[in-house]
Structure formats: C-alpha cells, structure tokens
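The authors assume throughout that readers already know how a fold can be written as discrete tokens. In essence, backbone conformation is discretised, so a fold becomes a row of integers matching the chain in length. A single example would do more here than another paragraph of explanation. For illustration, here is how one protein appears when written out as sequence plus structure tokens:

…
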Amino acid sequence: MLTSHAALGGDGQIDGRANVINVITVHWQTQKWVDVQLGYLEGNVDQPFRVFASLNGIDDPEVWRRFHFAEDLPGTHYEKLNALGRMVVDQADPADLVVFLDGDAFPVRPLFPWVATQVAEHRLVAVRRDENPGDHEPHASFCATTAGFWDEIGGDWSNYGRVLLRQLTDAEVDWLPMLRTNTHDLHPLWFGVYAHRVYHHGAGFRDRVSKVDEQAQPGLVKARPRAARSVGSLARELAQDPTRLRHLRPHHVATLGRALSKPLHTARRRHYANQAQPLSDQVFAHLASDPEFYREFDDTELSS
C-alpha cells in the first residue's frame, strides 16, 4: 500500500502532470528510524509518494506493511539501492521522480516545488559531502532524479557513488550538489542539513566514526597490509620453524605487528564510537519529538 497519499497538486508537476515520488531507502538491523523517516516524509512531501525499502534484520510484519514494497535484500548497501532502483524504473512512468534516501535521512522543510524545479533543470540533484575529505560524488543520503533519467544512464551507486559520478561526467550532466548548510555544528560531518531542506543524521546504523574523526585521531587509522604472504601463512611457518623469525623481511615483520595491534585499533574505534553515542541519542530524542529540531543546526529563514 502507499505510505502516503497526499493531495494531488501543481507543485510537483513535470510536463504538466502530477508525478508520483518513488522513495528508495535502506534500514538495517533496527526499526528505530522507520517512524521518524515516514513521519517527516508525510510532513514535507505534498505529492503522492510510495516507499520501496530494504529492511534488513527487521522481522515485524507490521513494519513491513507500512511500505509499498519491503524485502530483506542481500548484498551491500549500494547493491540494495541498485536493486530497488531497477525495480522502480520497471514500474514507474519515466517522468516520475526517484528519491534515494538513507534510512537516517529525511526532509525537514517542504521539498516542492524546489526538487521538481531543480530536477527539471539539472536532471539530478544530490547531497555532496564536501566536508568529508575526498568526497566529490553524489551521496545516497539524498538524491533525486526521474525514473527515465536513472534508466537512461544505468544509474549505479557502486563504489560509494563514484560509479554514478563517472556516469554523470561521461554524460556531461550538470547535476546539482546539495551542500551542507549548517549554521551550527555539533560535529563536522554528522547531524548535517543540506540545501536547508534535508537532514542526515549520519552513521545511524553503524559505529559513529568517520574519516574526519580518523584524521583527528591518528590512533583510529589502521594501515593496510602490503606483504604478499598472509598473517596466517607467516604464523604457520613460524610455528613449524621458529628460527625463520630471523629471516623475515621488514615488511613481513610490519604485517605481524599490524595484526597484533588490530585488537587495540578495534578497541580505540569502539571507545570513540561509545563516547559519541550519547550525543547521537540526544539528537535523536530531539528530532523524534520536535519537527523544528533542525533549527538547532540550520536556523536560516527561507523565502520560499
């Protein structure tokens, strides 16, 4: 069934007709974001919309029935988005909108007519997290386009959106990046408002450690092993003949050292994530009870 059936109106029209919005989202191992996300969609989308969801590790049939489509899809986060995207393209009118939305993201201000206008002009509009070092690609926390355009370019979220960026570049598409508009930051990456309209909590389904945190906390970063032989094979050789320790090359010794330090690295990440969790819980409690919570992060007054 449709999650929402808002009244048909002119704000979301493309080519003279009111278009259905097809929202694609992924929730993983917890249903805590379902009520929040659907509630903010209901409050900020005044066009008919339906939600296609991957609900991984969520067994409650009442939750599943709240979506137009729900399934526990296999694969990575981006494989799930791609699978749902293909499903929408097969069902939708080419002019219908497709909105990719992270499970911990949602609109906080009315999306229309702004989204329809930008998609008509740029063909695709998406969050771009310039504040996260090295991120230049569209981000799946929010991305809007048409079913026809997504089909035309064979839209693909693989490799953290870098494949999609290449597709847009190859097609010479002037896509519109939605940038962070926070006027107040509790964290340089989490709790972000983009283009004044979309909120992304960040790390709502995993440990709360980002590239920003890792750069500020060098102990959180684990170097990649470069030795040809695995730690397991080295350990077996040494167990058979401990004298081989004298003949190990420097990069083999470094590999063993990294393996021994891995538990410490994991503990550091867990400790940092645990420290950040109370702040995340505090923000979640606020956003779950107050639809004006986003003004704590972006107090800009929009003219329209």
